[in-house]
TrEMBL record:
InterPro entries: ADH-like_N, ER, GroES-like_sf, NAD(P)-bd_dom_sf, Quin_OxRdtase/zeta-crystal_CS, YIM1/Zinc_Alcohol_DH_Fams. The lineage of its organism: Bacteria, Pseudomonadati, Pseudomonadota, Gammaproteobacteria, Vibrionales. Gene3D superfamilies: Medium-chain alcohol dehydrogenases, catalytic domain (3.90.180.10), NAD(P)-binding Rossmann-like Domain (3.40.50.720). One of its GO terms (molecular function) is oxidoreductase activity. Keywords: Oxidoreductase. Residues 10-307 form the Enoyl reductase (ER) domain. The keyword Repeat does not apply. Its EC number is 1.-.-.-. CDD domains: MDR_like_2. This is NADP-dependent oxidoreductase. The keyword RNA-binding does not apply. It comes from Vibrio kanaloae. Pfam families: ADH_N (PF08240), ADH_zinc_N_2 (PF13602).
Length: 311
């Protein structure tokens, strides 16, 4: 099958588009004919060696862990999915990925794709939306009437987080560049902060929660200062020393998302009900995966980047 894979860690130029063995499935797995693969920051982080020391991966490594497509084979123990079913999945990052014609994955991680989306667009959803859902619901413990600040609200995770927070009944404050103000207002942001000209610490305080969907600039530490005692700060990238949150009586977590089909089912329902819209920045062919990752790495994408796998 055709796939995009690594033979050694490094830059986007280390990605090879070529032929590789088609995966085989175990009794608990399904084989998905991939039609779309989402592009996420973790893809290029892994490419650069983010998990090298973990020993989880063997080369050649197919990258990308968001997929949407059709079930074409299923193991003898699989009863929750049907052959021909349109599905989507956030696959385990410890395994081979989805920039490929086929993906073998445990069936209990797979959910029916949102019916209101075309299947390529559905590939933009799983990892980013699951991250936003888990970080807000489990990490921030966000409830109706609470105030939440979302950093990098125009990014892939941030765009979903804004909409999920609104669906939960929260007052949403979002940071982004001025060029994204109208976009975020349309998504439902109640208060916009231009991070290039405003310090968020000067604009808000006594918040219930902060989701830090960006790294660097000490944003995780600085966010502790704008949360009430007992409030929650969840960071998706940067960790901090435990002393400062303890001193300020704020709950801090460096969040690690986990594949979860039940969360994908809830997200699909919100999409099909029109509560969550999926915003695509650009669709690339599978052969242009290097360019897609470079766009992701530039941090200039508004919404999601997807690879179309139509070979």
């Amino acid at each position: 099958m055709k796939a995009v894979y690594l033979e050694e860690y490094g830059s986007a130029q280390n990605l090879t588009f070529g032929d590789i063995a088609k995966p085989t499935i175990t009794p608990n797995q399904v084989l998905i004919k991939v039609q779309g693969a989402g592009v996420n920051p973790v893809d290029w982080m892994v490419r650069e060696g983010f998990l090298r020391a973990s020993g989880q991966h063997e080369m050649p490594l197919i990258v990308g862990w968001d997929a949407a497509g059709q079930v074409v084979e299923k193991g003898n123990n699989v009863s929750n999915l049907k052959l021909g079913e349109q599905v989507y999945v956030y696959a385990p990052i410890s395994e081979q990925g989805a920039y490929a014609e086929y993906l073998a994955v445990d069936s209990d991680l797979v959910a029916s794709a949102p019916k209101s989306l075309d299947i390529v667009t559905a590939a933009a959803v799983p990892l980013a939306a699951t991250t936003a859902w888990q970080a807000l619901v489990e990490g921030c413990q966000l409830k109706a009437g609470q105030r939440v600040l979302i950093h990098n609200a125009s990014g892939g995770v941030g765009s979903f987080a804004v909409q999920i927070a609104k669906a939960l009944g929260a007052y949403v404050i979002g940071t982004a560049s001025a060029s994204n103000k109208a976009y975020l207002t349309a998504l439902g942001v109640d208060q916009f902060i231009d991070y290039q000209t405003q310090r968020f610490e000067d604009e808000v305080d006594e918040l219930d929660a902060v989701l830090v969907a960006v790294g660097g600039d000490g944003i995780a530490e600085r966010s502790l200062e704008v949360v009430r005692k007992g409030g929650n700060v969840v960071s998706l990238l940067d960790d901090i020393e435990s002393a400062l949150p303890l001193q300020l009586a704020v709950n801090f977590q460096r969040w690690w998302v986990s594949p979860n089909a039940r969360d994908l089912q809830r997200i699909a329902a919100l999409i099909d009900d029109g509560v969550i819209k999926v915003n695509i920045d650009k669709v690339f062919p599978l052969s242009k995966a290097a360019q897609a990752q470079e766009l992701s790495q530039s941090k200039r994408a508004r919404g999601k980047i997807v690879l179309e796998v139509s070979l």
